[in-house]
Amino acid sequence: MLLIESLHTGDDAPSAQLILNFDARTKSRLRTQLASGEEVGMFLPRGTILRGGDRLQGADGRVVEVVSAPEALVEACCDSAFELARIAYHLGNRHVAVQVCDGALRIQQDHVLEHMLEGLGAKLTHIDAAFEPEAGAYAHGHHHSERGATEARIHVMGGSHG
């Protein structure tokens, strides 16, 4: 089993891929598999949120690239910027992880939230895509040297979103 305990900070090319959905990318302790099928035990610092393109350092020296797996999402569009801002407010008020797109918001599929969004006038489309939600505005982040930016941790609530 490959042991991973840290992010890779160098420029080395990855030799393996770890394909994870968003929920798995929020876990600091995880037993999973590389795309090749090899087992992985991941033990990262608590609060680490992995993004597609991040690189991990294997205990054996291998560099592993994180790939954001496609997952069941809902894309919400509105007729005006005001309506889009209104639904963003209501999702934020519920601490829902949201991906901001050009003219739309994406969330993980949830029938309760979908009903609320429709009631607020949003037009919904079910899609399968990688989910890369926004980081929380007040959170402290970890540094991604290959991007030259700091990303904050995302506040993820468990259980019901209602």
Automatic annotation (TrEMBL):
It is found in: Cytoplasm. Residues 1-64 form the UreE urease accessory N-terminal domain. Keywords: Chaperone, Cytoplasm, Nickel. Transmembrane segments: none annotated. Pfam families: UreE_C, UreE_N. CDD domains: UreE (cd00571). It comes from the Bacteria. InterPro entries: UreE, UreE_C_dom, UreE_N, UreE_N_sf. Its main location: cytoplasm. Belongs to the UreE family. Involved in urease metallocenter assembly. Binds nickel. Probably functions as a nickel donor during metallocenter assembly. This is Urease accessory protein UreE. It comes from Viridibacterium curvum.
